[in-house]
Amino acid sequence: MLMAEGFTAPPNLTLLDCKEPSVSFEEPANLSSVKHLHFSCCETESLPRNLKSVSSLESLSIEQCPNIASLPDLPSSLQRITILNCPVLMKNCQEPDGESWPKISHVRWKSFPPKSIWLP
Question: What are the residue ranges spanned by the domains of the chain?
Fold first, then answer.
């Protein structure tokens, strides 16, 4: 659906319970209007490599995605990132030595809450 010609993604985009090993945003998808992107309960091992091209992205939330270990390059427009119940990714985003720290150091608000209880 995101690849349909003429389709413009909504400002809030959620990928929930994705079973694919990887996710990509391919052309001609128009993602310029996406401001809030949320990945939840996904089995994917990596986020889209071209996430940096989502130029209006203001917030990124990654929740219950245990297979994601690192972040791709992120757009300079990103102001908020939340990572919840993703232990490897949380570790890789820690200041100052985390592998992904340089990719989020510019982000104004970073939230890595302690492990929470997951209620289905």
Answer: 12-111
